[in-house]
Design a protein that fits this description.
The chain is of the alpha/beta class. It has two domains: 40 residues; 165 residues, Chitobiase, domain 2 (2-Layer Sandwich). The chain is built from four helices and ten strands, in the order αβββββαβαββββα. The strands form two sheets. It has a six-stranded mixed sheet, covered by helices on one side. Strands 1-2-3-4 form a four-stranded antiparallel sheet, with no helix packed on it. α3 links the parallel β6 and β7. The longest helix is centred in the N-terminal third of the chain and has 39 residues.
Length: 219
């Protein structure tokens, strides 16, 4: 009887130790997740840090990247069997609401050069410059499009070149950045592609939507 009692007591102690070990492991794991999230943003309260985006035909791995105050999104894609990591400010899943004229894709794929233009107004600030740089890194990338891109103003300003939608041709697409009190959208007028939004941030969303469109990530 005593021996069985001792065995039961020993078994109970072992169960408690296992339980405590499991609790300790859970606490350590939780602490590690909190620490990693603090520096990488891997887990967020309002959105996913990693997901697969589907355009109805293909799927793409998308993940959030955080560097200091910068937050961007990387999309894994393949072009000519080459793995390419596209990094933009907005992820494809968040741009489904942007109205788009899909004729813009053909206009850009069939051209030889691209000119991005916007009015010389204070409303176009540093984010417009970042937007231009983001578009340039895609259109000028040799393995993607290898198209020369330049920028202009819609009216005379200092020594900058002037370009409007009237200057667009079959071989040179003009992309007009238009901040207006209207929905965020991508429109076309002949060989001119018009990105429209109520702010620079909305223009950035329209620009990213256009890039996902021409790359075939979004339809």
């Amino acid at each position: 009887m005593t021996q069985k009692h001792d065995e039961d007591e020993h078994s109970g102690d072992r169960g408690i130790k296992i339980l405590l070990a499991c609790l300790l492991g859970a606490i350590i794991l939780f602490g590690a997740v909190v620490y990693i999230n603090q520096y990488t943003g891997f887990i967020t309260a309002n959105n996913l840090a990693y997901y697969q985006y589907s355009n109805g035909e293909d799927q793409f791995n998308v993940r959030k990247v955080i560097r200091g105050e910068y937050i961007g999104w990387q999309t894994e894609m393949y072009t000519n069997d080459y793995r390419y990591i596209l990094e933009l400010y907005n992820d494809p899943g968040s741009l489904e609401d942007v109205s788009v004229d899909r004729a813009a894709r053909n206009a850009l794929l069939n051209d030889v050069a691209i000119v991005v233009t916007w009015p010389p107004e204070p409303i176009h600030g540093s984010m417009t410059a970042v937007l231009y740089s983001e578009m340039q890194k895609v259109f000028s990338e040799e393995i993607l499009f290898n198209r020369p891109m330049s920028f202009a103003q819609t009216a005379a300003y200092k020594d900058f070149p002037v370009a409007t939608c009237d200057d667009a041709t079959r071989t040179t697409t003009v992309i007009l950045l238009d901040i207006a009190d209207a929905e965020t959208s991508i429109k076309t007028e002949g060989n001119c592609v018009i990105l429209q939004g109520a702010s620079e941030a909305e223009l950035m969303r329209a620009a990213d939507r256009l890039l996902y469109l021409v790359l075939g990530i979004m339809k």
